[in-house]
Design brief:
25% of the residues lie in helices and 0% in strands. The protein is mainly alpha-helical and 64 residues long.
Length: 64
């Protein structure tokens, strides 16, 4: 008997995991807790901080 197909929610979850974290200021290694970008030495505007994929310098290094 063949295995049943994966449910849609599982397929979506697996795609999300493969894509990795969304590139935004809040999870960038250059963004500090006080809202400043170390790389550009400035506080980015709120609309930029809350956008997705706007900065080509976004970085998130593996912690090990």
């Amino acid at each position: 008997m063949p295995r049943p197909p994966k449910p849609d929610f599982l397929v979506q979850y697996e795609e999300w995991i493969k894509a990795g974290p969304p590139p935004c200021c809040h999870n960038c290694d250059h963004y500090s807790g006080d809202g400043r970008c170390f790389l550009f030495n400035m506080e980015p505007p709120a609309e930029f901080v809350n956008s997705y994929g706007k900065c080509d310098q976004w970085s998130q290094e593996i912690p090990f």
